[in-house]
Amino acid sequence: MSDASLATAKANPATTLGDSPGITLLQALAQHVLAFDKRQLTKGAIAQARTCILDAIGVTLAGYPEPCTQILLKTPGVATAPGPSLVFGSARRTSALDAALINGTASHALDFDDFSGIMGGHHSVPLVSTLLALAEERGGTGLDIVAAYVIGVEVEIRLARAVNFHHYDKGWHPTATLGVFGAAAAACHLMKLDHSKTTMALCIAASLASGLKANFGTMTKPLHIGQCCRNGLLAALLAEGGFDAATDAFEHAQGFLNVFNGPGTFDTAKLFENWGQPWEIEAKSIGLKQFPCCGSTHPAINMALNLRREEKIDAADIARIEVMPHGRRLRHTNTPHPQTSLEAKFSVQYVVARALRYGVLRLKDFEGDAHFDPEIVRLLNLTTASPHPDMADDAEEQWGAEVIVALKDGRRLARRIDNLVGRGGDNPMSSSELWDKFSDCAARSLPREQIAPLFERLETFEKITEVAQVTRLLEVSELHKAPAKKVVFAPRGAQEAPETTWVP
User: Fold this and answer.
1) Tell me: the pLDDT tens digits for 387-406?
2) What CATH number should be reported for the domain holding residue 402?
3) Which of 62, 198, 304, 491 could tie 355 with a disulfide, CB 3.0–4.6 Å?
4) Would you say residue 497 lies in a domain?
5) Which helix (H) or strand (E) holds 355?
């Protein structure tokens, strides 16, 4: 692509690139990545990116002590390379590649990270660990990282529009299989690679994409994200050094689209249609998690909480519970009797039972033997789950659920919602709610005195002049690894923490 074409594209974000005869899809995508710059960031895009980056860092800190992260850290050869990039919540520094692997795994260890209804996965975790690790090696301001994050999200979700929902239903984990392209694109943008090298990075990423939904509910699911972060960054570093790949790795007869999806199951026109109008990060389909479990269970959780609160339900009076999520939400959350804490995160029956019995779901409800709580087991024996008959697989809105509770006195109570993608769009989390979640997560790895300053720094992330202003607050001396206590903190300008709202 010529310098004149790039200059025109940067001056006019609506310019459609990649229409030249003979150009491949990934060459066109690289043009879009290269044409993007910080001047195209809207206030809304910056604000949403800041919130998502803050949230991702919080859940990464919560995931650091988890077995999947600790086993990875103890594996021979992992995180032994020298380098300046921090393993969050520790004093350990290593190469950007290894830090991306470890922090990326930790970021998804608890399945508490934000997600996109369009992507059918988690848009932030392939990017945040990648970009912070890379910025510690190469430098970069907060606004540089925000810009790279926004273009990474754009790539991920544009690809999702082209391949979903067939890609998702086939069994691929889009957070990893599509996130690797976002990670590569974001890294290339932060590294300021040219068009040829950005194209090569995306083409290399096509062969590094992996992640099977069969491994949901196991430690391998968060490992998908660690590998995705490392592979996306590796693709960019290899391309920078002159590594090559096939430029038609996406549309080739044996390329990504035909192998991962299959002929006739994708629409590449959606890759570039109305590019940046608005940016995908500004979409209402972006949602933060208020509950530390699979996002597909959240509509049902909300309906159960509404029923409990509005109908004053006592769990002892329940005779039967029916859970009817959208069919696409149920396929990987239909776990009637979870036997591990990880399985509990993917059990719509378990989370609904907990919501009805206790009126809240916290991190501790997915630890140890919490899923064997006798009162919850009793309710699970009364619970059935089935796809909602009125929510079609091809419906535009695919994040619905209905919960029906039959009481011993014969009453039948129900609550239904047709679309609820986490907390976002018209129902964002407040600063106080963000603090409650962040402090609960961060307290698992950081000394209490670091948590509030870190939160305040992240609230103005785009204004930092160097990434060390954040990472030094994520570093913990091994002398300070005693369990931290929850911190009480009112965000600036808040009169008091509002009562938690469970309805959209």
Assistant:
1) 999 999 888 888 899 999 99
2) 3.30.1330.120
3) 304
4) no
5) helix 348-358
Query: In the numeric block, which tokens belong to residue 232?
Result: 């996306």
Instruction: Quote the distance between the C-alpha of residue 226 and its chain's center.
Output: 12
Q: What is the pLDDT of residue 376?
A: 98
Question: What pLDDT band is residue 426 in, cutting at 50, 70 and 90?
Answer: confident
Q: What's the CA gap between 53 and 423, in Å, rounded? A: 15
Q: Does 304 share its domain with 262?
A: no
The reply to whether 307 and 158 lie within a common domain is: no
Strands (E), 14-90: 85-86
What is the pTM assigned to this prediction?
0.82
Is residue 228 situated within a structural domain? yes
Check: CB of residue 374 under 8 Å from CB of residue 293: no
Q: Which of 427, 445, 441, 431 is nearest to 482 (CA)?
A: 445
CB atoms within 10 A of CB 139: 12
Domain edge (last residue) among 348, 383, 417: 417
Q: Which of 160, 134, 181 is nearest to 29 (CA)?
A: 181
Show the domain range for 193.
3-279
Residues 254 and 308 in one domain: no
Place of tokens 């990434």: 467
Reference 101, options 3, 228, 199, 196; nearest CA is 228
Total count of domains within the chain: 2
* Antiparallel, parallel or unpaired: β 286-287 and 318-325: unpaired
**Average pLDDT of the chain, as a whole number:** 90
214: CB partners within 8 A, 6+ apart = 171
278 cis-preceded (ω within 30 degrees of 0): yes
Pairing of strands 93-94, 401-407: unpaired
Task: Indicate if 226 and 356 belong to the same structural domain.
Answer: no
Q: Taking 70 as the threshold, does the pLDDT of residue 502 lie above it?
A: no
Burial class (CB in 10 A: 0-12, 13-18, 19+), 264: exposed
Determine phi and psi for 242, rounding to 5 degrees: 105, 5
H or E stretch at 94: strand 93-94
Calpha distance 261→166 (Å, rounded): 7
What pLDDT shows up at residue 485?
A: 40
Question: Which of these, 51, 36, 40, lies nearest to 425 by C-alpha position?
Answer: 51
The residue to which tokens 């594996």 are assigned: 75
